[in-house]
Amino acid sequence: VCYGLGRFSSCVTARYQLGFLLMLRDVLKVPGSCFVYDPLFSPSEKQLLEKLGFQLIQKNEEGKRPVNKRTLFYMPHCGKPLYNNLLWSNWGPQLSNLVILGNSLSNMALRLLLFFV
């Protein structure tokens, strides 16, 4: 699952992130569908993603996707609320199925602690 890829038609960084996602999918030989969502995707970006074999998530899940099997979430530069929702939606035994490739959770926690000091 990929959240927060960005507008790759107009942003060089987002194009690199898409390239990384394509390589990651190939290297890991991801079984089944690879889902993507960003509220900023244009119609032409959505069309290209489908041609590349990705399955578009149609509505904004706000990161609240529960998992019941090992699932990789690629979340380049997503905000704390999205991480919070994903963790909260899987808090319990299923948390061990969650693999997140994204921002440092330790750094987020540290910044939060420093905010209250």
TrEMBL record:
Organism domain of life: Eukaryota
One Pfam family recorded for the sequence: SRR1
Residues covered by the SRR1-like domain: 1-109
Family: Belongs to the SRR1 family.
Protein name: SRR1-like domain-containing protein
Native source species: Branchiostoma floridae
